[in-house]
Amino acid sequence: MKSAIFALGLLALSVCSAKEVSVHDPVMAKEGDTWYVFSTGPGITFYSSRNMKDWTPEGRVFRDQPVWAKRAAPTFDGHIWAPDVHFHNGQYYLYYSVSGFGKNTSGIGVTVNKTLNPRSPDYRWEDKGMVLQSVPLRDDWNAIDPNIVEDGKDGAWMAFGSFWSGLKLVKLNADWTGLAEPQEWHAIASRSRGPSVAGQSAGPDEIEAPFVFKKGDYYYLFASFGLCCRKGDSTYYVVVGRSRNVTGPYVDRNGVDMLKGGGSTVIAGDKDWKGLGHNSAYTIDGKDFLVLHAYETADNYLQKLKIMEMKWDASGWPVVDAADLNRYRSNQLPSP
């Protein structure tokens, strides 16, 4: 009996002490039988997994900072923000942003690789440089938080943006490494209550992290409202709107245009989890999943990876179960 109690105690201790994956702004891609999560961090941190639960740290994408980073963002500190990853034309394209907190001295870049497996002989990231730059007093938008979406007509678009005048969409060239010419831009979401001004201040309009997910006849635009990165004071939450066209207009459940402040809540924080946001979304083996970070109250508001099944109501809107925040627990394995 004592040995059984001792064994149970060890099991409980191991569960309590298990280290979870701590990330901001997670995105995923699959190669072969392995999933990879990329996230904000020094040089872009990434992890691998065979089951989307047990994750092995794989180090950094960039050993050194992108050569152009300081030109676009003089206060860049080595932390590369908000990646997005896509497979296209036989290569993986990893988009990323460099910036300074609360500034729009920012740039979005892209690096490519034949494989995501760091143990493959073909593994080598080749940075293609800057795709887009924002400049204070010239631009009323912020070139961070890129997300790529295909339009089904052999075209690719980049959604991006944070604060200022909101979220934008711009068409990419055929190589996916620059803007298409002539340029085609669209404003897709905003919380602005006044005229657009290309100021140095981010302003009060809390919106960022676009992610466009195609489902059926609709493109769903997810975004994060509120404030990130403030531990227990974080107010981040996920909203959504939809459109039959990739360029919009995107409207919420009540028909309110996201350019006019619309956005239906998908998931917000509770007593156990704060600052939920900067999501991505994927279809995996016939099921849809929402991937995001959340701050755990019981762990001093440490940011943690969350993967939640996403279902759809009778009207075709995404629904997640908040209880999955506690059900899903990642496990960080030792580094190889």
UniProtKB/TrEMBL annotation:
Domain of life: Bacteria
Record InterPro entries: GH43_arabinanases (IPR050727), Glyco_hydro_43 (IPR006710), Glyco_hydro_43_endo_a_Ara-ase (IPR016840)
Residues flagged as site, Important for catalytic activity, responsible for pKa modulation of the active site Glu and correct orientation of both the proton donor and substrate: D145
EC number: 3.2.1.55
Annotated keywords: Glycosidase, Hydrolase, Signal
A Gene Ontology biological process term: carbohydrate metabolic process
Active-site residues, record numbering mapped to chain: D25, E208
Pfam families for the chain: Glyco_hydro_43
Catalysed reactions listed for this entry: Hydrolysis of terminal non-reducing alpha-L-arabinofuranoside residues in alpha-L-arabinosides
Pathways involved: Glycan metabolism; L-arabinan degradation
Molecular functions (GO terms): arabinan endo-1,5-alpha-L-arabinosidase activity
Signal sequence extent: 1-18
Family label: Belongs to the glycosyl hydrolase 43 family.
Protein name stated in the entry: Extracellular exo-alpha-(1->5)-L-arabinofuranosidase
Organism of this sequence: Duganella violaceipulchra
